[in-house]
């Protein structure tokens, strides 16, 4: 799971290269949700890591 999370921005970048000519608005609006979602996802892992668990136990 952690490997997929790390690859998502790169996959989105490839997707953006494919659809960039068909957009009528700024590409940033499509890219914005992914970093925000990843940030919130990693925030949910902070309590478990603070309690001493390894991050690998959750993926």
Structure description:
This protein is an all-alpha fold. It has four helices and no strands. It has helices at residues 2-19, 28-31, 33-43, 46-50.
Helix run count: 4
Tell the overall outline. elongated
Rg from Cα = 15 Å
**DSSP strand count:** 0
Structural class: mainly alpha
Average of the residue pLDDT scores: 82
Provide the low-confidence segments as ranges. Answer: none
Largest sheet: none
> Percent of residues in beta strands?
under 5%
H/E topology pattern:
HHHH
Q: Gap between N and C termini, in Å?
A: 5 Å
Bin the helical content: 55-70%
List the helices and strands and how they pair.
Blueprint: H1 2-19, H2 28-31, H3 33-43, H4 46-50
List keywords for this structure.
elongated; mainly alpha; 59 residues
Task: Summarize it.
The chain is mainly α and 59 residues long. Helix content is 64%, strand content 0%.
